[in-house]
Amino acid sequence: MIITDVLTQNARLYPEDVALVEVNPEIREKIDKAWEEFDLVESLPKPSHRHEITWSEFEGKANKLSHYLLGEGITMGTKVALLLMNCIDWLPIYFGILKTGAVVAPMNFRFSAEEIKYCLELSQSDVLVFGSTFISRINSIKDSLTEVRKFIFVGNKSDCPEYAVFYEEVIENMTEANVHINISEDDDAAIYFSSGTTGFPKAVLHTHKSLLASCYTENNNHHQTKDDVFLCIPPLYHTGAKMHWFGSFIVGGKGVILRGVSPKWIIQTISEEKVTICWLLVPWAQDILDAIDAGLLELENYQLDQWRLMHIGAQPVPPSLIKRWKAVFPHHQYDTNYGLTESLGPGCVHLGIENIHKVGAIGIPGTDWECVIFDENKNPVKQGEVGELAVKGPSVMKCYYRDEKATAASLYGEWLMTGDMAMQDEDGFIFLVDRKKDVIISGGENLYPVEIENFIRQNDKVKDVAVIGTPDARLGEKATAIIEIKDGYECTVDEINEFCMGMPRYKRPKQVIFADIPRNPTGKIEKPKLRKIYCGENVVAKQNEIKL
Q1: 3-state class of 314 per DSSP?
Q2: How far apart are CA 463 and CA 494, in angstroms?
Q3: Is 282 within 8 Å of 321 (Cβ atoms)?
Q4: DSSP symbols for 343-358
Q5: C-alpha pair distances (Å), 449 with each of 41, 284, 438, 466, 478
Q6: CA 400, CA 194: separation in Å to the nearest integer?
Q7: Measured between alpha carbons, how far is residue 511 from residues 183, 451, 458 in Å?
Q8: pLDDT tens across 328-355, in order?
């Protein structure tokens, strides 16, 4: 069995049940504003901000695309790149590509034109499926994309570039009958690109076995049933969002794709779509709580009793955030999820909804996964000691595509070296200390930014914080805290200095900078960007010194 068989099974068992819903609150607000501005009668039909498809329609669209691609000579192993914003067509296109035996290569919608070109060339993609958001970027590099022989445009026909074929038009007359390609679980299935926070992305190759295994891992971790409704907010190109949905997908549960991340839109959609499971990134959870505290969200106006699980991943989760969340939503189950693109996203380590007392840990090995913490010589460390976390399981990447050196550096036998520094407590729970490359060595002491960040986030005025090492003539590096203050609050260096007195002296940041914290679409702090800004020649002009 491979993952496309799950779609076929759902279409057979639940043909008329809703599979996917797309909700666009921004369109809704524009429509409502127009109706009010022009005094249009309520009985006049409004354009919809909401679209849905059944499992039968989902399977039919995927099959139509697969027949078209096969007719265009797409065969086993051909690479097909996918560059779309979240929309209701995203997943049918993804599965349509997989059904042909081709390798699907989803791309980050924030990629610049040069990054798009780089990833298309690295993955050796023959076909590019793209949307209207990316027309100008593709136009600027189109003539240099010598390996891409087919461009498929998804959007309004009037926007379709002359060099591309129009998606809806080319699949219109294709049959909805299932294709029959002999695909095994060991065949290549997908290339996912690393987040690229340390330079150009690497191409992470996964097999069909990886994809299917992630369905079972997620479902075993969170116990989704047919009746659960999963809210998908993060970008679908990322392994986290899609692989969490996989846990509902494998039991035929409904998925809701929300186009927008404002607190009101999230809570409104959970209420109206009867969402039971929502995966959030740290900034979104913080924004929801801040909006509630500020009186901008009144929860009694929404139907939220059915919402059973909120879980978070993609970056370290401040325990103070979960304490706040449980105070507002005491009935919620909660889970922390840990994973990497190289492990096909979340689930290789997870806290477990029954282990709320261990908030702060990333958890224990997920279903069918093993973990070990190695020292620099690849020897397991003693309990309580810090080392590099390694994981082993059914969704470890096959390799970095066309990068043997990077593959050799990351794979130690069957173990995937995560690059994350961690320790294990006496109960077997793993605590993430920091990224190996983010550890600050200050005066011979190892400082772990996550630990300092978690402490500073407990300050009621702090919205977000990132700690980086900046050059220091005496210490080599010093801990610098970039702090984003909540809207409506004022904070001084002296206040932060006083607050940090609760930490050991050597851990206190030696500098503080009040500024916005840049995060990528999956919620990770972009520390390389901060280092580029604040470790340069003009850093003195941009920072405030804390006198310690």
Answers
A1: coil
A2: 18
A3: yes
A4: GTEEEEEE--TT-GGG
A5: 57, 21, 7, 8, 11
A6: 10
A7: 56, 16, 18
A8: 999 999 999 988 899 997 889 999 999 9
**CB-based contacts of 182: which residues, under 8 Å, 6+ apart?**
none
Residue 201 CB neighbours (<10 A): 20
Residues 401/205, Cβ–Cβ less than 8 Å: yes
Residue 47 phi, psi (nearest 5): -60, 150
Return the structure tokens found at 135: 């027309």
d(CA 359, CA 399): 33
Name the amino acid, one letter, at 308. Answer: R
Between the two ends of the chain, the Cα-to-Cα distance in Å is 62
CB 428 within 8 A of CB 414: no
In 411-458, beta strands by DSSP E: 411-412, 415-424, 430-435, 440-442, 445-447
Cα R_g (the chain), whole angstroms:
24
Report the amino acid identity of residue 233: I
The Cα 307–Cα 27 span in angstroms is: 25
pLDDT tens per residue across span 52-102: 999 999 999 999 999 999 999 999 999 999 999 999 999 999 999 999 999
The whole-angstrom separation of Cα 423 and Cα 407 is: 25
Instruction: Identify residue 295 by its one-letter amino acid code.
Output: G
Give burial (CB, 10 Å; 0-12/13-18/19+) of 521.
Answer: middle
* CA dihedral (31, 34, 36, 40) positive or negative: negative
| Three-state secondary-structure class, residue 504 | coil
Q: How many residues does the chain have?
A: 548
Q: How far is CA 468 from the centre of its chain?
A: 23
**E strands within 233-321?**
254-258, 277-280, 309-313
**Tens digit of pLDDT for each residue in 422-432?**
999 999 999 98
Residue 508, both tokens:
């206190």
For the chain, counts of helices (H) and of strands (E): 16, 28
Give the Cβ contact number of residue 318 at 10 Å.
Answer: 25
Question: Residue by residue, what is the 3-state secondary structure of 181-249?
Answer: CCCCCCCEEEEEECCCCCCCCCEEEEEHHHHHHHHHHHHHHHCCCCCCEEEECCCCCCHHHHHHHHHHH
> What is this structure's pTM?
0.83
Q: Which of 433, 435, 390 is nearest to 525 (CA)?
A: 435
All domains in the chain, ordered by first residue: 3-260 (3.40.50.12780), 308-435 (2.30.38.10), 442-545 (3.30.300.30)
For β-strands 50-54 and 18-23, DSSP reports them as antiparallel
